[in-house]
Every structure is written in C-alpha cells, then in structure tokens.
Amino acid sequence: MPAPIIKVDAISKSFGAFKVLDGLSMQVMPGEKLALIGPSGSGKTTILRILMTLEKIDGGHIQVDGEQLYHMERNGQLQPADERHLAKMRQKIGMVFQLFNLFPHKCVMDNVTLAPMLTKGLARTAAEKRAMELLDMVGLADKAKAMPAQLSGGQKQRVAIARALALSPKIMLFDEVTSALDPELVEEVLNVMRKLAAETDMTMLLVTHEMGFAHDFADRVLFFDRGRIVEEGKPDEIFRHPKQERTQSFLKKIIAAGHRV
C-alpha cells in the first residue's frame, strides 16, 4: 500500500471560544477523490484552509506528501515551520474558492500565468503555453484576453480552476465552488471537475452541498459534524445506508430541501 499523501493527526482549531475542529484525524491516499459533507460550521472548509496554510492549527500534526506541514525538523526536534517551509509546501496544493478570487484588474491570461511566473520562475512564453492548454481544458481558450468583469460566474470559476492547476499541484482543494453560482451555471463547473477526476490522478478534496455530484465524484465521503468525522465510507454506503443517526437526519433534511443524493 502506498503511504497517505495527507495525514492529519489529532488537530484542533478554535476561533475564540468556538472549537471548530476537535482532535480531528484523517488520511487521504494518493489519487483519492474525497467529498466532505456536513452542516455549516462543522469544520469542512476549515480543514481545507488549514491544508492550504490559510489558517494555522492550535494542536496536532499534519503531513503532506511525506513532509510535516506546520512543523520542520531541526537537530532531531520538531519545530514550528518558518514561512520558507510553508511556501514550499504550499506549492504541492491548489485551492479553488467559493468566490473565485480572481484579480479584477488583470485579464484571464495574466490571472493564470502570474503565480507560476512568480513562484516557480517560469518564463512568460512557457507560462502562457501552459495557461492556454488549461484554458482550453476548461473550455475558455477564447477568453484569454477577457477581463473578469466580462465573464459569467461559471466562467470565472473555470478560470479559477485553471489558475489553481497552473502550479501543477499534487492535491486540489475545492471549497463550495458552485454555491455562489446561478443554478444554470453550476453544471458547466461540475463538468470541468468531472473531467479532472476522470482524466488525472490528482488527489482531490471537495467540500460541497451538491450531494448528487458528491455521490458520483467521490471514492469516499466523510460526514462532518461539530469538528469531528461522524461517519465515513463509500458514496453508496453514506448516501443510501448511513449508519449514524446524525448522518441520517442531515441527509433527510437535504432530501426534503429538494436535493438529489
């Protein structure tokens, strides 16, 4: 068996008096497609932000691709990681956010090429060649010179996916990437993610309320509640035969709200 590409060991995280992660442990295997589901405030997005080093942990340890994420070894001792170590680890991971986060004053091409040129020292010609390949993959090759304000929400989100892929990460994190979109634009973004899942061996973690998509996309589903993983299993096990009462009650509410699972 290969080693896990992500290993989370008893991490905790609080915002003031609110404990959002409570001794959370989990493992993700290389190439695995993982869906994180659960009520708002259950810790799903926080674990993605922690993996992306946008939030620091209060306790515990995380390994990514065989290396400590928030610690580094010096003289046989684990010490808090410095910014240089965090920047190196960050290059292994790409993240797509709910609200796109494109640079509004830069065209699509510049949004996709900026990070590889700055962080990897890629020449502009090489960065633009790669960007065009990625924009073609997400169906937006004809929008390379467009400004974000000229794009629909679905197009902006597809540019954001291309931008995250431009750094060739081993791990991709998707945080509620369709929740800010009009319903008719959701499918175009989900289709890009289906393509990514089918055609690459990238490890992918998805936080979503699109239960039907989570069922079709994921190798494994984790149900979060109050900072812990209450239940995990294959999509059919979680969505068709959940064992825990908390999972059953959550899915009943989702179905009652008209969502497919």
What does the model show?
- With 261 residues, the chain is α/β, with parallel strands linked by helices.
- Helices cover 37% and strands 26% of the residues.
- The chain has a domain at 102-168.
- It is globular and about 50 Å long.
- The mean pLDDT is 92.
Q: Structural class, from secondary structure content?
A: alpha/beta
Multimeric state: single chain
Radius of gyration: 19 Å
Q: How far is it from the N-terminal to the C-terminal residue, by CA?
A: 31 Å
Arithmetic mean of pLDDT: 92
Number of strands: 12
Main beta sheet strand tally, sense and closure: 6 strands, mixed
Q: Percent of residues in beta strands? A: 25-35%
- Helical content stands at 25-40%
Spatial strand order of the main sheet: 8-9-10-3-11-12
Question: What is the H/E order?
Answer: EEEHEEEEHEHHHEHEHEEHH
Pick out the low-confidence regions. none
What sort of overall outline do the alpha carbons produce when their principal axes are compared? Answer: globular
Number of helices: 9
Keywords for this structure?
alpha/beta; 37% helix; 261 residues; 26% strand
Q: TL;DR?
A:
By secondary structure, the protein is α/β, with parallel strands linked by helices.
Furnish the topology, listing elements before pairings.
Blueprint: E1 6-15, E2 18-28, E3 33-37, H1 44-51, E4 59-64, E5 67-68, E6 71-74, E7 77-80, H2 83-90, E8 93-96, H3 108-119, H4 124-137, H5 153-165, E9 171-175, H6 183-199, E10 203-207, H7 211-217, E11 220-225, E12 228-233, H8 235-240, H9 245-256
Parallel strand pairs: 3-10, 3-11, 8-9, 9-10
Antiparallel strand pairs: 1-2, 1-4, 4-5, 6-7, 11-12
